[in-house]
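User: Please predict the structure of the protein below. I'd like the answer in structure-token form so I can feed it into my own downstream comparison script.

Assistant: Understood. Taking the following sequence of 301 residues as input:
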Amino acid sequence: MEIKLTQNAGRLDKFVADYLKDEFDFSRSYVQKLIEEGYITVNTQQVSAKYNLLSGDTVVINPKTPEAISAIPQDVKFEIIYQDSDILVVNKPNGLIVHPAAGNRDQTLVNGLLFHIKDLSSIAGKLRPGIVHRLDKMTTGLLMVAKTDQAHKKLTEMLANNQIYKEYLALVHGELASESGLIDAPIGRHKADRKKMTVTDHNSKPAKTHFEVVKKFEHYTLLKCVLETGRTHQIRVHLSFINHPVVGDPLYAFKEDQKDTFGQYLHAQRLKFKHPITGEKLEFYVEIPREFSDKIRELEK
């Protein structure tokens, strides 16, 4: 994987350990070993783990896992919404992890893609073939997948330039005072809990989430959220930041939310973008899952 830095990022070993936290959860010492063995380079050069990363630097990471993890074809269930020779769009169900990692070696979306799809792009590596962007395990809805490297490169570029419209539906705690708004707050790794992200000015990236009230209930609100950026856990972090966390969110909501077997009520319902090869305008929409609609009917009563 290749990362082009837009700001200074501190020591190389710390930056890489944080960057790979979700996928591999490598220790700092193991990352230092990878740097020493040449699996991680800066501007195509092998450097020290102590190297201080600067804006404009290009970091290339070829992660080597301590124990071999391979993505094998498995008959994992998911819905294909659209498919052609370059891309496909899938509807990810609740509870499905996108790709294999140290703690989740199989039964992921990637395992299912390898079983059902003959060709997938290779840019993201052997554990993430075709994966252009991700949804959290408990987030449902639309996800783009690249079948060719050319399509993958273009989609990645479009995501970076905010040329892909991503719309979510979120059920949150509390009743919002405003009917709409913009949450403009930078997101970075939480200092105390490495599994969490947080709004912070320290080692963070700009993040913007637009929201609009769809319906109000007693003690709850249904929101439409549109991403202007795509940071890890962005909607969940931003809504928690304004004291309206996503219902059922096990990380950013309340202890009572951890008891909800469905998980967080967050759904990627709409995607709009130009086809990366043909330029054709594409738009996709999927309804919320049954458990989400049942929850809304329960609140309506």
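That's the full token string. The first helix runs from residue 12 to 19.
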